[in-house]
Design a protein that fits this description.
Helix 4 crosses helix 5 (93-128). Helix content is 63%, strand content 16%. The longest helix is centred in the middle third of the chain and has 36 residues, at 93-128. The relative contact order is 0.07. It is α+β, with helices and mostly antiparallel strands. It has a 5-stranded mixed sheet with strand order 3-2-1-4-5.
């Protein structure tokens, strides 16, 4: 199996090995299946809960035996791989450590930025343009709905009581 990181111009070969998987820089083009995409595409694939959805129909291109690619993603999903160690064996300990730290920093940054964006958007929609109700407004509305429901239940019971009296006289 070959993995092509298009933005890093890096070609890797992944082969079964008695000790697990062997990963080498690609020297020849005789892979049964080739996965091509950017580093971020593969990071998305590896961090996705649904690898099938993240791989097929997305930005990772598959050429060759797609069934082998499916088996490979299932193996990766079940394995707890040391990606930093694997990368260190290819590019060295220091660059792999720095790259892993950078990726962790970026992932944390994007998570925090996404959370901040969500909170700011929520506040804008509620407080600035009043497109969404605030929590107290929702609670007040639900309280009013409860009061209307109680009132209609009382009216319904009173009507049933009056209907019963009319039926007993007639």
């Amino acid at each position: 199996m070959a993995v092509e990181l298009t933005d890093a111009n890096l070609h890797l070969s992944i082969q079964p090995h008695p000790a697990g998987l062997q990963m080498d820089l690609m020297q020849q083009d005789d892979a049964d299946v080739t996965l091509s995409g950017t580093c971020s595409d593969f990071l998305t694939l590896l961090s996705s809960k649904d690898q099938q959805d993240a791989m097929f129909g997305k930005s990772i291109r598959i050429s060759g035996e797609s069934a082998l690619a499916t088996r490979f993603t299932n193996i990766l999903k079940d394995a707890a791989l040391d990606w930093e160690g694997i990368l260190a064996s290819i590019i060295g300990d220091l660059p792999a450590g720095q790259l892993a730290a950078f990726i962790r920093y970026k992932a944390n940054f994007y998570l925090q930025a996404g959370h901040s964006l969500k909170l700011n958007l929520e506040e804008y929609l509620k407080e600035e343009i009043h497109l969404l109700p605030t929590r107290p407004e929702i609670e007040h509305f639900l309280n009013q709905v409860g009061k209307v429901r109680q009132g209609t239940d009382r009216i319904e019971a009173r009507i049933a009581q009056l209907q019963s009296k009319l039926d007993s006289r007639g």
